[in-house]
Amino acid sequence: MTTNATMIAGLARPDLAEAHRAVQRIYGPQSDGVWADLLSSAGLDGEETGPGAIERMLDAMRAGAPVTALCGEALAIRVASHDRLAQAQALIQDGAAS
Known about the structure:
Layout (H helix, E strand, L loop, with lengths): L6 E2 L2 E2 L3 H12 L3 H12 L8 H12 L3 H32 L1
Antiparallel strand pairs: 1-2
């Protein structure tokens, strides 16, 4: 479950915790080392919850090994989609309030 409470169309914006779970799924028992390297590359400690943390992690993931880069790109697409849905929802709500 994501720690980000902002839900758009029933979907939460991917966050650092979700990126960590993705790394665990693709790397299994080696994920601790991969995650530590990614955190170091991103300049994070793993406890961040703000939206900037996932952006920094995605940059680190996309600069990583091919499978890590692909995972980072998939998460980046989800982040961008969520952000665009949030913008559309705001426009619709603003129009309805007018």
